[in-house]
Write a structure and sequence with these properties.
- The protein contains 8 helices and 8 strands.
- The chain is α/β, with parallel strands linked by helices and 289 residues long.
- Strands 3-2-1-4-5-6-7-8 form an 8-stranded mixed β-sheet, with helices on both faces.
- A hairpin with a 2-residue loop joins strand 7 and strand 8.
- Helix 4 packs parallel to helix 5 and helix 5 crosses helix 8.
- The protein is globular, with a radius of gyration of 18 Å.
- It is found in: Lipid droplet; Secreted.
Length: 289
């Protein structure tokens, strides 16, 4: 452990739900590493969190989830610290962005929201397994969205006619399928690691910056009534990360700090397996054994 405390990594921890998650975990005494793609935002988040929580146990490491090279460099930097990893929060994401591709040629929603986290998680799995114990499992928490209920997976044509909402929904469905497959493999290996997926609800964050301006105006006018604050949105992620009730529990879909049912298609074990195999090919990761 670092200074005798638990260690967490939170992707996209500089703003919104991720920031609130980092702040809460740091306040509890965890050593939290923010993984993000903006050095300036990262250092500012670290400064503010240290100021607000009166703890020095938070730091920033650069990680661009739209670049497999950057993800591998981040993992190398983390491993060089020779510390354990007890909690991994896959929180970062983009929503409804204009059509564009990642550094590796994938549609950005799929490449960043899903495939980047798939690679990051797999590269950190050994450390997570070594850090978990029978009484205190290491935990992987992945942030999805209710949009996954309308998502469809088109692995054979990820670069099809672009519609941002469907691309976003597909990436969020992929995260649920990934979590269930991951838990299956972890259980089969007898690992002391659990994987769960959370739905934060509709949260007033910067994710909406690419939404059409009329929708932005309506959002601004109604946010106080319908939208959760980032702090409220982070509550289920934090619950999954630290609650004693979630000790040893994996493969759950959580909303408002309760286990609930995800989309029917997410329970398709063959689809889970196919997605995992294809993702391993895309990101050059071998399936767990």
């Amino acid at each position: 452990m670092v200074g005798g405390c638990a260690v967490a990594i939170v992707t996209g921890g500089t703003k919104g739900i991720g920031y609130q998650t980092v702040k809460h975990l740091a306040r509890l005494g965890m050593h939290v590493i923010i993984a993000g793609n903006s050095e300036s935002d990262g250092q500012e988040a670290v400064r503010k969190i240290k100021e607000e929580t009166l703890t020095g146990k938070v730091e920033f490491l650069y990680c661009d989830l739209a670049s497999m090279k950057s993800i591998r460099q981040f993992v190398q930097q983390f491993r060089a610290k020779n510390c354990p990893l007890h909690v991994l929060v896959n929180n970062a994401g983009v929503m409804l962005v204009p059509e564009r591709k990642t550094e590796d040629g994938f549609e950005e929603h799929f490449g960043l929201n899903y495939l980047g986290h798939f690679l990051l998680t797999n590269l950190l799995l050994d450390t997570l397994k070594q850090s978990g114990t029978h009484s205190h499992n290491a935990r992987i928490i992945t942030v999805s969205s209710a949009t996954h209920y309308v998502g469809k997976l088109h692995l054979d044509d990820l670069q099809s006619r672009y519609r941002s909402l469907f691309a976003y929904a597909q990436s969020k469905l992929a995260l649920v399928l990934f979590t269930y497959r991951l838990q299956h493999l972890l259980t089969a290996n007898g690992s002391h690691v659990t994987a769960n997926v959370v739905d934060p609800g509709v949260v007033n964050t910067e994710l909406y910056k690419h939404v059409f301006w009329v929708v932005k105006v309506v959002k601004w006018m109604t946010a106080w009534l319908f939208f959760k604050t980032p702090e409220e949105g982070a509550s289920t992620t934090i619950y999954a990360a630290i609650s004693p009730e979630m000790e040893g529990a994996g493969g759950c879909y959580l909303y408002n700090e309760e286990r609930t049912k995800s989309a029917d298609v997410a329970y398709d074990e063959e689809l889970q397996r196919v997605l995992w195999t294809e993702s391993s090919t895309f990101s050059w990761v071998n399936e767990m054994h």
